[in-house]
Each structure stands twice: as C-alpha cells, then as structure tokens.
Amino acid sequence: MPLKVAHESWKQLSNKKTATCESGTLEDGSVVLAAITSCTNTSNPHVLITAGLLAEAALEHGLQRAPWVKTSLAPGSQTVTTYLQEAGLLESLEKLGFYVVGYGCTTCIGNSGPLDADIASAITTNNLNVCSVLSGNRNFEGRIHPLITSNYLASPPLVVAYALTGRMDIDWANEPLGISSKTQKPIYLKDLWPGPEKIEALVQKVLSQKLYSDVYKKVFEGDDRWKSVVTHKGTQYQWDKQSTYLKRPPYLTDCPKDPAIQSDLKNARVLAVFGHSITTDHISPAGTILMDSPAGHYLREHGVSPELFNSYGSRRGHDEIMIRGTFANSRLKNLCVAPKLGGWTIHWPTQEVCTIFDASLRYAQEKTPLVIVAGKEYGSGSSRDWAAKGPALLGVKAILAESYERIHRSNLIGMGIVPLQFINSQTAESLQITGQESFNIDWDLSVGGIQSIEMIRTSGESVRFDMKLRIDTSEELAYLNHGGILPYVLRKMNPSVE
C-alpha cells in the first residue's frame, strides 16, 4: 500500500481505539517502531545522507522523536557508519534515537527487541492496531514485531520523519511536524528535506575509494569471539549434539535404494484451514521466538534463556526448533479456531484446541496423515525453503488450495508434498470445508492430471470432487515419486544407497 493511501486510510478510520501510557497517548495508527534497517537501501549513500541531513535540520528546529517510538539504525555496511561520522550526521541521528545496533538482519527480520513494557501493555490491553515504519523490503504481519499489526516500507529519510510524528495519518503536504523553536512557526517536512545539490556535495565530500578499501580489508578478521571458534579438521562436519543452532536434519535418515510407492491417504485429517494470501512468513516465520511458543519451550528445556532465543531465521539449521516454528506466526488466521490468532488448531479426534505442533505429534502417534486447506495465493511472499520443510516434517502430505505462488509450489514438491488445486469453480468455501472432515485420496499422480478426492463429513456423508494436480513437469513427477528432491538426488548420485 503506498504511503499516501496508508495516510488516507488511517485518516478516514473512525472510532479509533486509544490508550494512555507513560510515553503518551497511543491510538490505532500510532507508529511505535521506526527502523533504518540493513537491507534494501542502507548502502545507498544518497538516501543515508538525506536521512542524516533531515535529522540535523529537525534538531535545529527543536524537533524530537515522539517518545513512544522505538528507533534503530542498522547500516548495510560498516562504510556507512564511517561516512556518516565524517559528514557529522551520525550524531544528529543518534540524538533522535537512531543509534547503530548492528550490520546484519535486525528489525527487518524481527530482531527489534522488546517494546517498552508500558507501551506493550497498552497495545495488548486495548487491542491497538499500531504501526512500524522501516526501510527494509518485507512487511508481513507479525514479522517486524509480534505486537505490531501494520508495517510500512519507506526510505530512510521518511523513517526519520515518521519517528518525529509517531503517527501514520499525517498529511506531509499540509500538516506540520511541529512548531519550530527558531521561528515559532509551523515546520513542514518540505522545510526539513535537503535539496539535491546539498546532498550530492556532501556525498562527494565524504565518499572515496580509500574509505571502502580501509573497511573491507578487515572484513574477514572478525572479533575475539569469532577468532576463538574451535573448528575440526576433516571433510565432514562434526555435529554437536548439544547445539541449539545446528542439528543433523532427518530428511535422508531413511532412504532405501528403491523409492517407495506413494502411499494413498486414508482418513487424512485437516491440520488447518486458511483463507487467501497465506505467505511463507505465515507458514515459517523468520522473526522473534516467543517465550511461550513451542520453540520457546524447547529452547528453555535445553537451557537457553529467553534473551538468547534469537530468531527463527538464525536457527534455521536446527529442525527441532524450526518444526516447532512452523505455522507459529502470531498473526496467523486458522479458520478452524477463528477468531483466535496464532499457531493454534483443533485436534479433531479429541476436539481439543492445541498448538499446531502439538496436534501434529498426536496425529503422528495415531499414524494419521495430514492435509492443509487454503484459498488463493498460498505460499506468496519470500521464497523460503522452511515453508515447505516445516509442513513436511509435521506430516502434511498434500495441500488443497485455490492457487499457489510459483516458487513455493515447486518447493512443496521438492519436499514430497502434493499441491492440489481446486477446479470447476469449487473452493473450500463452496464445498463447505470446515476442517472437521477426513479425506481419502488414492493417488493417480501425473503431470497436470486430475485427482479424485473423497471427503467424509462428520455426519458420515461422502462427497467426491476433482482437483488438478499441480505437477507441472516430468521432473517434478519424478521428485514426488522419490519422496522429494533430496532422496531423488541421493539415489542418482549413489544408486546403491541404503
């Protein structure tokens, strides 16, 4: 959504919820987090210099960051810190709260850290729809911070501007940011924004080839902790069984010489029913690991304190953590448990509401295969291998959806999950699929073929319908017949594999 449209939509919102906290009055549309983040454009000297000059001008007029806005600066390169210092602009950014917090994935992947306790309490107690503004390239629900529903992408100078106002509904063209302490008159964004000549002159002054070479020649040195890492000699990695970051994955644990025939699905149960536009970030979030989540419980059981949980993205080398993080997005909407949000479902044989991970364990003990039902654009967003790996490890054998994102469909096949697409104008809604049903599928796998599905309602009624097999190439069919791309490749590399 363009920022102008966002402004208009927030402006037109009636009956905004409000809450008072130590930092001030929050309402729906308040910006509580503003981050200049490491990806996308923080290696662009022109926009970083612009952000610094805007911060400098704001301070000259006595403007300050709104007290409820958490701010951070994560440059895309250490050279950025150097040239901002040489330009005399880093201090101005710091005075507005934009301190350098790191050079890797920070707020853009959910590593923003906690909001102040009083702000977090105000949001949760009053169910506020608050916002973040960041200069990254991802704004999925729940990714930036689990308490922030609406996330907007902006250039670094606009991130600074939103930090000054602390609200999304400001009209930059017609509303002032505040009153200038110099002139005692309203000050507008256009008054703070530097001209192109000033920006270019400063860029030319502080940038040089030597600046980059001085930084890059030390890039592989690392700090003392990096230098103290113990490595093992040899061509094979030595797995540390105590590690909560790296664990030998189970994908090839049982890989017989000859592939097994694709097992038909008998009495498969529905793990979740989703609507449209379920993203890979909904399926396998990359951000914060919550303390009370299945992954959080696992880490605590293994002696990791909450402040060291890190993110799902940083622990993607550990399948036990990532399987617990599958469908654990705090904003996920599983229609089986609506209006409850998050990684919850119903274990249908007992009718108990539990986490999706716990339900999958129960179904595994019962030897029950699983399916997912969804709407349009299933798997949209970032290409993320764990959005296919996670469901496969949960026991999901097929997805029944209206349409798929192209790469995610391919990834599902790579993990041995069959993508099925509704046809004949049918949808989960038109078929009145609630999630309580069981499914029988006698596989007839072929490229672009039609697959017959039998659905058994709780009343015992049998409903048959056809779906299209979204197997688009002969290679994909071969992958599925081998149980996924990894067993396929292993058997091709080593025909005698056991």
Write the layout of secondary structure elements.
Elements: H1 3-12, E1 18-21, E2 24-27, E3 31-36, H2 45-60, E4 70-73, H3 78-86, H4 90-95, H5 117-126, E5 131-134, E6 150-153, H6 156-165, E7 178-179, E8 186-187, H7 189-192, H8 196-206, H9 209-216, H10 224-227, E9 265-273, H11 280-283, H12 294-301, H13 319-325, E10 344-347, E11 352-355, H14 356-365, E12 370-373, H15 386-394, E13 396-401, H16 406-414, E14 418-422, E15 438-441, E16 450-456, E17 462-469, H17 474-481, H18 485-493
Parallel strand pairs: 3-4, 3-5, 5-6, 9-12, 12-13, 13-14
Antiparallel strand pairs: 1-2, 7-8, 9-15, 10-11, 14-17, 15-16, 16-17
Helix pairs in contact: 2-6, 2-8, 12-13, 13-15, 15-16, 17-18
Radius of gyration: 26 Å
Overall helicity: 25-40%
CATH fold description of the largest domain: Aconitase, domain 4
Number of strand elements: 17
Count up the helices.
18
- CATH H-level homologous superfamily name of the largest domain: Aconitase, domain 4
- The strands making up the biggest β-sheet line up spatially as 9-12-13-14-17-16-15
Q: Kindly report the average pLDDT value.
A: 93
- Most strands sheet: 7 strands, mixed, barrel
Overall 3D shape: globular
Proportion of strand residues: 15-25%
Helix/strand/pairing class, anyone? alpha/beta
State the end-to-end CA separation.
52 Å
Unreliable runs: none
Number of domains: 2
Instruction: Just give the CATH class of the largest domain.
Output: Alpha Beta
